[in-house]
Amino acid sequence: MASKLHQLQTKAVQASQFVAKHGTSYYKQLLEQNKQYIVQPPTVEKCQELSKQLFYTRLASIPGRYESFWKELEGVKHIWRNRQDLKVEDLGIAALFGLELYAWFCVGEIAGRGFTFTGYYV
Question: Where are the transmembrane segments (predicted)?
Fold first, then answer.
C-alpha cells in the first residue's frame, strides 16, 4: 500500500511539473487560436452581459424547440401506425438504440455510485 501511495505521489509531482513547465505556453496558444471568440475588453461586466444574453437567447429558443419536439413525436406516431411496413434493418437500429440507452443508464448509475458495484449476491 505504501509503495502505491509513493507511486501516486511521484506521478502527481511529475504532472504538476509538466503543467508548471508547459501550462503557460498551452494557455497562450489556446487563446491565440480562439481569439475570434474573445470579446474586448474582457471585463467582469462584459462577462455578466454575455451571460444574460446567453440565458435569454436560450429562453427565446424554447418555442422553436417545443414545435420541433411535437413534429418528432408526430413522426414517431406515424412510424408506429405503419409498423407492419418496417424493415428488419429499421427494427435492428431501434433495438440497438434502446440497448444503448439502457447501457448509458446503467453506466450512469454506476458512475453516480462512485464506480462501485452493489447488489445482493445469491
Answer: none
